[in-house]
Request: fold
Amino acid sequence: MNRVKRGYYQFAGPISSAALAAALAAGAGTAAFIAFVYANAQAQLAPLESITRWLELAVTPVMALLAAAATGATLHAFKVRSRVAMTLAVLGATAGAIAISWQMLEALHTEQVGVAGVVIDGAWLMLLQASSALIVVAAALAVTNVALDTPLCPYCKSWCARHDRVARIEALPARHARALVEAGDWPSLRRLGRPRGSRYLRFDIAECSVCGQTRALSVTLAGRLGRRTPVVRNLLINGDTRRTIESL
Ligand SMILES: [Zn+2]
Reply:
């Protein structure tokens, strides 16, 4: 088990306090900027009540998602690929932006929100705010997951470039496919041939385009209705294996 695990990409990249400080500053700056734009828009559009009501609904998710994106992008620029650091920073920025936007809405005397003539207030407003906050947090975490999927080359500290769908073959149960891929049993995989239905195994490779020393394979079982089951995530491979996979 351990021997196989070592074949997977695990490098997280260093976490510096400068990167964390810059990331949180980027998140806070973005939230403050949106708050400024929003307050101005509310003042300008005050006579158009239907538009300002929609803005009230939109401001929290927009602010939180952009703050989370700015935080994540800054960590990415600082080459931080630590799941813990990225998740905590993005969640911090999201929660901070949600809190700021709620404070701001309260300060603007918005005890009630209405859409199309229906006023939402009291417990319903709290429920609406809580559910939009949950959706925003889930979206921020999903973005973090995508950002962390790309390996950072430990040799030259560059982000790897993704090459999606370098090969597609007939589907196998995920556990069986994982055993074949981890064992490097390419002849057995090749014998499966081209996909004959809507289910197939999809091979994606991330490769360092600067020094070429890091190459990681991800295999996904794609099913009906866009269902995707991860088979392996970032298994380190060499150039020969890459060529073999491309010719599957
Ligand atoms: Zn490299």
